[in-house]
Every structure is written in C-alpha cells, then in structure tokens.
Amino acid sequence: MKENKYKGRLRRWLIEIAVFVVAIFALFTIISHFLLIPVGSELSNKELKSALTQKRLNYVAIGDSLTEGVGDQTNQGGFVPLLAKSIDEISDVNVVSQNFGVAGDTSTQIYKRMTDQKKIQSAIKNADVITITVGGNDVMKVIRTQLTNLTESSFDKPAQTYQKQLTEIFDFIRKYNSDAQVYILGIYNPFYLNFPDITEMQDIIDHWNQATQATIAQQKKMYFVPINDLLYQGVDGSQGVTTSDGTVQTITNNALFEEDHFHPNNIGYQIMSDAVAEAYKEHHNEK
C-alpha cells in the first residue's frame, strides 16, 4: 500500500517537473521568435539578454507637417522614425517614439493642442527626448494675409508674437517635465521656389531663426537645430536645379517633395534626422 502511495507521489512529481521544463522551453522559444534570434546559439543568448535589459528611452515629437511627415513617400512619419533609429544606435537604448505632428499647425495651434490634449501632456511628462518643428506655418500665415503688399517689415510684429508663443510652449513643457532634452528645428526657406519675387525671403528666414535661437538660449536643456542651409540649397548645396521643357524653365529643389516644392522628400527628411542626431550626439550626456 505504502509502495503504491510513494509511486503515485513520484509520478506526480515527475509530471510537474516535465510540465515546468516544457513551459520554460516554450517561453524561451516564443521570446526568441519575437526577437528574431535563432534558438540555441551561443550568440542568441547574449543578444536575448541585451534585448531584455536594454534601457528604454521615450521620444516625443511635437509640431507641424514636418513632424507629421508630409512628403515622406514611405508614409513612415518623416524624420521621426529615422531619428529614433539614430538615437538607438548612439545610446544603445530601446527608443519608443510618439508622433504628435499635425500638418498646417501654427505655433498657436500647437500650443493649444498641448494644453487641451491629456495624451500629449502625459507623453511630455514621460519623455526623455522631445523634438519640435514649428514656425513654418507662422511665416506662411504672414505671406498669405499680406501677399498683395508684402515687405520685409511685414514680418516684424508677427515674429515678436511668435517668440512669445514659443516661450509659452517651452514653459508648458517644463511644467510637466524639467529634465527632458528638447531639440527645436529651425525653419527653412522653400519660398524662393513658390514666391520667386520675394527676394528678401532668405533674410527674413535668417532673422526669424536668429530670434528663435536667442529665445532657446534662455532655456535649459533646449537646443536649436538649424536646417535652413541644409535644405533650401538642395542636396550638396545645389541651390535649386533649373529644368526646362523647351519653353518654360522650372526651378526645383532635390531635397523637397516634388508635388508641392515645400515639404522635404525622403532625402530631405534624412538630412533633418542627421542634423538632429548630430545635436543629440553632442548633448545627450549633459546633466
């Protein structure tokens, strides 16, 4: 009787061990499958350990159509996923990105979304890195509303208003997060393609960016990333490429989207990403 009792306990014990071993093997197989790591190799064990212990970095992108990625023919989100990959490579972290870009937004509209939407506020609160694209639509608003009598001085008052709005955006971010590094991309000048008669546009863009840079300099852990010289001149500084069909000459920019000659194309977004990545590489270890 006792012998049968002991045999029964032994059998249950062996079954429990077998179930445990099978469960562990199945779990390891599932993890390996999702990480695309070959099961059983010496290299896979190291890579699995690295993937499981890799630090997470929260990247939040806020802004206008440049953040949304208009002109990106892959529909991946413009420079945002490219930058996330670069940050991953620079810092060896698992980058989780959130994109809050909306085409057409001015600085005022971006600020309103930030103050209205709890999702954006939560993202800012948990962010390690934030990028902002803002200002291009503020410039466009001046052009559209004053096109018939547009002069360089037309931008003076709007530029001052813009700087105040920019400060409110920065203050709002710091209200929720005092530690995140914030990279603000400057605006660039695609306007010479669409408005060739406005010859002062480059000076206007330069002055706008200089004022923005001065505003950012008053903030902590906020960095200005200039992109105008990288984009408005086209790839390799070609300053626009003139093509002709025999009757009409057209100036195009090989860093801009062909359909609107305003937003970056895939190459343009890579250029933007590289510029921010260089700034991140320079500043990411600053306390």
Rounded to an integer in angstroms, the radius of gyration calculated over CA atoms is: 26 Å
Number of domains: 1
**Quick one: biggest sheet?**
5 strands, parallel
CATH topology: Rossmann fold
Q: Whole-number average pLDDT?
A: 80
Would you tell me the structural class of the helices and strands?
A: alpha/beta
- Note the gap between the termini: 73 Å
* Quaternary organization: single chain
Question: How many distinct beta strands?
Answer: 7
- Helix count equals 12
Please name the fourth-level CATH homologous superfamily: SGNH hydrolase
Specify the CATH architecture.
Answer: 3-Layer(aba) Sandwich
| SS strand fraction | 5-15%
Order of helices and strands: HHEHHEHHEHHEHHEHEEH
Just give the CATH class: Alpha Beta
Strand order of the largest sheet: 2-1-3-4-5
Helix content: 40-55%
Shape descriptor reads: globular
Low-confidence stretches: 30-49
